[in-house]
Amino acid sequence: MIDKISKRDCCGCAACTQKCPQKCIILIEDIEGFLYPEIEQDKCTKCEVCERVCPILNQKEPRRPLKIYATKNLNEEIRMESSSGGVFTLLAERILNDGGVVFGARFDEEWNVVHDYTDKVDELNKFRGSKYVQSIIGNSFLDAKKFLEKGRKVLFSGTPCQIAGLNCFLKTEYENLYTIDFICHGIPSPKVWRLYKKELLKKYSKNKIPEPYFTSINFRNKISGWKRYSFSSSFIDSKNRNFVIYESVDKNVFMKGFNLSLYLRPSCHNCPAKSLKSGSDITISDFWGVQRLFPEYDDDKGISLLMFNNLRYYNLLDNSALLVEVTYQQILRYNSSIQNSVTPHKNRERFFERITLEEFNSISIISLINQYATYNLIQKIKRKAYLIYSFLSKKIKK
Question: Is 386 in contact with 289 (CB distance < 8 Å)?
Fold first, then answer.
């Protein structure tokens, strides 16, 4: 049974819940806000199907990409709406134009992150942009399988552990399946995200009716540039006034806690899908370090890394989008998360203890993050050096 693996190793991919023939595995949220499978023992027949589709118990071998490129979307509007260079949209459009279906993460009506699919190009904007919360996968693996068996092309994008879960779930190589993951730092707690959203709106509600509500959220707004991006949100307050908030990545408290690994899922600290073990066909990410390696391409609007792990899909992109070929060692220097799991923050346990103790009281999630998301000495030095470098770079360009 799936409860053979420890809780701290489970990545929450939901492959077991979707594959279980008895439908006796359900996902339950724990006190940290992450979903974990629980077995209804009276229904379980001990068939061990759940074990055979678990990406933790069935890890693949580490790999290296076969081809790597710096790339960007030539449509500047889409590129600016994207977190980096807009390469996901290029790949998705190719699949949709061939009558296929695209799966990815989007916001729901409450601004929680869920997995969904579309077969319409004009709905791709919902899936663009990074969303720094673990998405609720739902029945996406089952839905993808249905489309695949009907012969439709399917592009499935997700975190490396979700792609690993999908591959274990399917157990079959489909010619019409294209999988995309990304270089992942880790997945933050949906509970922390809910508390943070609630507190943001509370500041502007003042207990008035109607309550304020969000109209947009963007974790990676490029109003201040790609490298020093901003968290932005817009909402309507109780007096029907529209507010827009921009906070740079080093000022926004939610992003601060995320980047310091204060509230990531426990499995992220020993990720089962590092070094491309997910089995993905393509891996995408920001091209951090492009300003040092290829400054001629750095306009601070975003450049993507595109890694082909399966050369069958090498022809998915028009060559005009590919800027320059890059070596693995070049990208590894500035994108170490492709191989290395993050170290848990020293205050992680205490942070979640405080949330559990105070969640029914007047908890301020913003105050708690500020209190516990502290930098160690090395991080302080690196952060200061980066700010000085950014400042001098802008001065030199001017």
Answer: no
